[in-house]
Write a structure and sequence with these properties.
Layout: H1 2-43, H2 47-67, H3 73-91, H4 97-115, H5 126-142, H6 145-169, H7 172-187, H8 189-194, H9 198-215, H10 223-260
């Protein structure tokens, strides 16, 4: 009887936890969909509609985060900054089409990075970024200043677009390593082209970039879901252990009681 009671308690715990997880996931999905629609409108050059979606996102974002803490403080800050930049770019009449679209894309990638736990959208830029990087490296070794500067500028703009998303998905140490190497190459452009030792710097950065893109495809399970599974499993294991221990104690006491009788 006791065993059944504890097992039922464990199941009830799981049933109560899963709706909370599902609700959080649903709220993030809704916000993510709004950001996706804002980007679609921007790509179609329907900037008024894109602005409306961004404004609607702001309203929903405030409501949903006020009701439930679905995001941590870092994620709140990163999303807010990216959203404000996108809204300002869409409203700026002096911004070109590419600038507007890039700003909204940056925001869209951030929202997806917060929601996704496996292969976020920013990883789809791997081929573009690695192609720009390889051409930058080749131009540096050939000491082609024009090609080097053009390709490096392109790579930096791509890196800037996914940078907020990287801050969501990567550790601060990894971000700092990437920033240090990229800033060195950008700041010391003439030296990087002249010095033969710069090849090691490019190879180190290439290795880190490749590692970052590969690591994001390894774990496809939401950490929150793992927490639910582990918590429920722990309760069941403790329950079975307790029941087993009681049974063991009962079996050991039974001969003693019989002798006493």
């Amino acid at each position: 009887m006791l065993k059944k009671f504890i097992l039922i308690t464990a199941l009830l715990f799981a049933i109560l936890i899963f709706p909370v997880y599902a609700e959080s996931s649903s709220n993030l999905d809704k916000l993510d969909n709004i950001s996706d629609k804002a980007l679609e409108m921007a790509k179609l050059k329907r900037y008024d509609d894109s602005e409306k979606m961004l404004t609607y996102f702001s309203d929903q974002f405030i409501k949903k985060t006020a009701i439930e803490p679905i995001l941590d403080m870092d994620e709140l800050r990163i999303i807010t900054v990216a959203h404000n930049e996108a809204l300002l770019a869409i409203r700026d009449m002096n911004k070109g089409d590419s600038e507007k679209i890039n700003s909204v894309t940056k925001f869209r990638l951030v929202m997806d990075a917060v929601k996704s736990t496996h292969q976020p959208l920013w990883t789809e830029m791997e081929d573009q970024m690695m192609n720009s990087f390889n051409q930058t490296k080749d131009a540096a070794f050939k000491q082609d200043a024009t090609a080097f500067n053009n390709q490096l500028n392109l790579f930096l703009s791509q890196y800037e677009m996914i940078y907020p998303s990287l801050k969501v998905d990567l550790s601060k140490e990894t971000i700092q390593q990437l920033d240090t190497r990229i800033q060195y190459i950008d700041h010391y452009r003439p030296e990087v082209m002249r010095e033969s030792g710069s090849q090691k710097e490019f190879e180190a950065l290439q290795e880190e970039l490749t590692s970052v893109f590969e690591e994001m495809g390894q774990d496809d399970t939401d950490p929150s879901l793992w927490w639910v599974i582990i918590s429920t499993g722990s309760i069941i294991i403790m329950t079975l252990s307790y029941v087993g221990f009681r049974k063991y104690e009962g079996d050991r006491e039974k001969p003693k009681k019989e002798r006493e009788d």
